[in-house]
Amino acid sequence: MSNESKIAWRQRFNFNTIAAIIFIALWTVVFFIIPYQIQKPMLFMGRSLMGLKPTLFPRLATLTLIGLSIWYLIISFGINEKNGFKEVVKDGYFRIIVSLVVFTAYALLFEPLGFVASSMLVAATLSTFYGNRNILIGILISFGAPLGIYYVFTRLLKVSLPEFPFF
Amino acid sequence: MWDNFLQGILLSLRWDTFGMMGLGLMLGMFVGALPGFTTIMAMAVLLPISFFLDPMVGIPFLIGVYKGGIYGGSIPAILVSMPGTGAAVATTFDGPALTKKGQSRKAMEMALFASVSGDLSSDILTILFIGPIAILAMKIGPPELAAIILLSLIIISATTTGVFAKGLIMCFIGLFIAMIGQDPLGGMSRFTFGFFAIKSGIPLLPMLIGLFAIPEILQAVEKKVTSFVRKEFNLQTGEKLTFKEYRRCFRTILRSTAIGTALGIIPGVGQVVAAFVGYAAAKNASKHPETFGKGELEGIAGAEAANNAVNGPTLVPLLTLGIPGDKVTAILLGAFIAQGLRPGPQLFAEQGSLVFAILIAMIFANILFVVLGYLTIPLFAKVVNIRKSALLPLTAVFAFAGSYVYRSDPFDLLILVFFGIFSYAAKKLSFDVTPMVMGYILGPVLEYSFGQTVNMAQGNTLHFIFVARPVTATILAITPFVTFLLWWRATRLRRKHIEAQTTAEQPAQG
Questions:
Q1: ipTM of the complex model
Q2: Element (H, E) at B182
Q3: Residue B508, pLDDT score
Q4: Is any Cβ of chain B less than 8 angstroms from the Cβ of A29?
Q5: How far apart are CA B445 and CA B434, in angstroms?
Q6: Is B507 part of any domain?
Q7: What average pLDDT does this structure show over A68-80?
Q8: What is the pLDDT of residue B470?
Q9: B510 lies in a domain?
Q10: What is the pLDDT of residues B87-135, one digit of tens each?
Q11: Distance from the CA of B63 to the CA of which of A8, A78, B162, B484 falls in 20 to 30 A?
């Protein structure tokens, strides 16, 4: 295969083609597991108490998704779109991964540490990581904001957020 | 209807409604003025606040955020040529040129007055027309509703950015996500894969915040976030807009209001399209089109009046049929649902006065908007310079707190992160999440109406639809044609875009 035809093939077989193949595989699997993932209706004298089979609508939706994914696969060779992930620089990936790790840790520590403590940690970490070097702004974000948000939600809006730890 | 309207006036005259609407406007303008922060994100993050307020306070608060945000987007568009929101892109054609001439204050005042004029007129038109539309909507039965929802989902998928097939796939993914939990007809558990946490379904709020707020944070951190604009604009001493200049642009404002109002009622079209069409119409009708793009006040008036005129009519399909036309109305629908109200024909029948009260509050919001907007022009011009490194952590903390308070379930925070990652990846691969949200919101209504239709048909569904329900038959008959037309239009537009890109690249290579 010549270099030119290799490039043309790569251009035609793009991320949309891969996405379409993944979609076809995924929705086909979902279609076949439908009977095992939907609770069966109660039977009375051997007949279902529901007028409509509970699998009917999910089957219709999944079949439509398979059909759309096949259409997407066919047209994918002609789609000229840029893969946005290729435009992210190496440092950008690092910042995104760190942010996501912090978000996940925040989600997991939200209740055990309480809202204020976990938010203080997250706000301080993220603002420093994102480049804030102003101590006053740092204190304001790390201490003032979580306390302010805690006050607004729990005192003004009367809803509960996880309390402080050890209390 | 008239009684509901009068009761609506009384309901809307509350000091806390005005107070929260004013706060919403200020927050909206603040976020809109920040380049890179969108109104959608602000609404998603502030949505939980509305849950714990009275509907007559919480919903006007969000409407205030919406209105303020759309106008706020024009501030950085005029000052530093960075549109704060997508709706303000057309404002960058003339705004920065006026700033260069030292007329930034004049440009911002024109943006404000055109926005308020467009918004106010379209709100009045909405109040006038929503009653008759609601009466028609009340006559709609399950078969018609199912057909209308199906057609709306196709239209919404087609009007999103990118490839039509991708829009439709996203829409059906949303529909599938809505199926997780319990089916709306028999309450049968489905697609939970043994996870107890999703037994009652994927919660709307963490999903909305995850889809709209988290990707914005991630996109902002892709580049070094310490960089920010630092400019002085001398707005205190700058030249102000004269009444003569406003009067000169009045025809343009009226034209753009009509354009925005007409486009706002169509699901999925939104402010961005309205702003561009309003701008193009102003340029075409002008006696001196050559001045457009070089600092023409009419250009700003055309774009801003049109994008704000969308605000009122976009609520018509939401309030009368329960169909959100865009991301903003999807978030507003979330607020209604959390308040225990389901927009649609029934809401009009049961809570007509509340619906009118919300619409009337929108008119009062415009009065507040012009006062607050005028007084705070110099303040919000400074917002353009705020460091993102300070705001992004705050946004994250607010997003997490807001997601948690919905059900006090820590699992919702993982849902927030999951949908944040999903939406970020979708953006990178040119998938629009808007049809997915619409599919998620309208999925249960579609399934319920579909189920009722099948039950009503008593075994002979096709005969029932095509003989006994002529309106349903007509809608279903035109659906393939509409789909084909939308596909053809999307393909043609994409080809034109590729051709334009190739033409632009060729001289550069040469």
A1: 0.91
A2: strand B181-182
A3: 46
A4: no
A5: 17
A6: no
A7: 90
A8: 87
A9: no
A10: 777 888 888 888 878 788 888 889 999 999 998 998 898 888 887 877 7
A11: B162
Contact between A54 and B222 using a beta-carbon 8 Å cutoff: no
Asked if the structure places residue B469 within a domain, the reply is yes
Q: Is A61 in Cβ contact with B179 (below 8 Å)?
A: yes
**Whole-number Å distance between alpha carbons of B203 and B407:** 9
Best of A15, A52, A62, A71 to substitute, by most chain B Cβ atoms within 10 angstroms, is A52
Scanning chain A, the segments in alpha helix (DSSP H) are: 3-12, 15-37, 56-76, 90-113, 115-129, 135-139, 145-151
Cα angle A42, A48, A50; round to 5 = 90
Does a structural domain hold residue B350? yes
pLDDT at residue number B267: 67
What range does the domain containing B67 cover? 2-500
What is residue B53's DSSP assignment? S
Read off the pLDDT band of B226 (50, 70, 90): very low
Residue-wise pLDDT tens digits, B268-280: 666 777 888 888 8
Model pLDDT for residues A9-65, shown as the tens digit of each residue:
556 778 999 999 999 999 999 999 998 888 877 776 666 666 678 888 999 999 999
- Cα(A57)–Cα(B170) distance, integer angstroms: 17
142-161 in chain A: CB under 8 A from chain B: 145-146, 149, 152-153, 157-161
State pLDDT tens for residues B179-214.
998 888 777 888 888 888 888 889 888 888 888 888
Q: Does A2 lie at the interface with B, CB-CB under 8 angstroms?
A: no
Find residues 99-138 of chain A whose CB sits inside 8 Å of chain B: 99-100, 103-104, 106-108, 110-111, 115, 119, 122-123, 126-127, 130-132, 137
The verdict on a CB contact (< 8 Å) between B165 and A61 is no
Instruction: Give the nearest chain B residue to A134 (CA atoms).
Output: B390
Contact check, Cβ <8 Å, A107/B413 = yes
CB contact under 8 A, A91 and B224: yes
> Structural domain tally of chain B?
1
Domain residue limits, chain A? 3-85, 89-156
> B185 to chain A: which residues are within 8 Å by CB?
50, 52, 54
Going through B171-315 in order, the beta strands assigned E by DSSP cover 181-182, 189-190
Report residue A1 as tokens. Answer: 């295969």
Question: CA nearest A82 in B: which residue?
Answer: B429
- Touching check for A17 and chain B: CB below 8 Å? no
β-bridge pairing A47-48 and B189-190: unpaired
* C-alpha B217 chain-centroid distance: 19
Average pLDDT over residues B336-362: 83
